[in-house]
Amino acid sequence: MLVYIVKRILMTLLVLLMVVVFLTLLVHIVPGDPVTMILGPRATPSLIAQMRSAMDLDKPIYVQIGHFLWNILHGSLGMDAVTGVPIATLIGSALPHTMILAVSSLLLAVLIGVPIGMYSATHTDSLPDRILTIGSISLTTIPSYVAGLFLLLIFAVELHALPAMGLGNAGDTLDYIKHLILPSIALAITWIGYLGRLVRTSLLEVFNETYVRASRAAGISERLIRYRYALKNALIPTVAILGVGLGSLMGGAVFIEIIFTRPGMGLLIYNAIQTRNYPLVRAGVFVVAVLFVLANLLADLVYTYLDPRIQLNKRMA
Amino acid sequence: MQYFEKPSSPLQRLLDRIPLVGDIVRQPLGAIGFAIVSLFVVCVVFAPLIAPYDYARQDIPNRMEGPSVKYWLGTDNLGRDLFSRLVYGSRIAFETALPSVGIALIVGMLLGLIAGYVGGWLDNLIVVVMDTLQAFPSIMLSLAILALLGPSLVNVIIVIGLTWMPNYARVVRAQTLSIREKTYVEAERSLGATDRSILLSHILPNVIAPPLILAAMDLPWVITFEAGLSFLGLGVRPPTPSWGSILSEGFDHIFETPWPILWSGLTLALTTLGFTLFGEALRDVLDPRLSGTRGL
Fold it and tell me: Is the separation of the CB atoms in B124 and A235 below 8 Å?
């Protein structure tokens, strides 16, 4: 067990190192020079040289990678060459809003999706089950940006029922929550459908297990079997998938933050792309990748803890 | 010379199932999916015949109109017919989805075969590279690359192919690993078969079905992904109509007219639903073992 955990953590560190190498190499492999993209075609050579040095691009690749890693180890992500503000400050103010959005969407998806799956599994082939199943499939196929635009159109533009832009007044928690409602629903919709389907499938699988049938034969009440014994085991795959979910929700947040103008990581990276600010793009994408990888690592470890039967050295499906 | 009975390959089973459509349509949800996918294909092939107007034709006096007899679904901010633009948009969806899934499938399969068959340090290297590519949410990876490549349809295809490829490499690698150890492969090897012939005539036919099913299941995601990138302004350039760019133009004028967002959103959601239902029915028919929900 310990060997597995250590191996898994080392692997994670290796992947993160590769992420840094990849993001640095990208500038060199892919055609297009970020410096001339920022400064435009009429920039003077001295200005270009100055910007190139501010972005670290005048040094050999291994120095750039080393520099980036050295900065990370010292809790810094370098200076933003365009605004002159430390990149860590920019990310530090954007990240909490994205995390709040992702976590509240995930919570919403669990609170709605899990009961849907449970109801469906305990009422198989009934009319409500069929409606819920088709509903869940339909929800999984609505892209988050379509859901976001529809919610914006209905509740903000047509009904004026909920605010749609920004974060609300600073310091006003209630206003902040109001501004969070539409974005988190939009982001949660796919996952509500997805969890509904997943919980239904895994519960039905567990209902067929020998120990459930044995418990039934022993006369244990159906309610106890379903909600105490079966649900516990059926939720293991769900817990495992939530880590992946958190990561993918952070990705989906790009669209939602643009649609609802929430100043989170997605909007930060998107704006950096618009201004061709590649160092900021690299740092932002790196931070998201770190969170993504950590969420997956955590889900993996929780999964191993919950279900010791899974193969410990299984690295690829 | 054959000493061991070979298990029937998934490819063989695939070919046995040529009257596939019948099996898919027999399931109600599969039938709905098939109908939607057929409608989509008809739009792609016959777009110029179906669309009443040219997708770039502007009718400024009638801009941002609701549905009418003249413009069935209304017009956008430049007075262009929304119905015609949506019909032509299916072509963009198709022209992006097919090649990008194709790239992901072919490159992923090749890497998976090499990793699984050759093993050793090459396998480790491929695994780490795939892990790295999957360490990003796919949208972030695409944004990072498109930030440098610049927006264009070809770039979007390359980026989507690259982003989706690791899934295929994983599936094929896992299959290759298990088949490599099968007795009949060892028997062939001891009879002097070359690596090339083992790979082509024994491993490839046995690993090809799961990635093909995966490709069918991935099509709807790739379509929404392309639309998403076009929505962000990183996909096709105007006036080419992508469903994502119609959404984006609608977003710019959301306070003036709901129709572009409404119709393009519904088209996207319906197409995704159709392909998903079709893909799942196809999977259930071809390989019931893979049935159940899969990761996003």
Answer: no
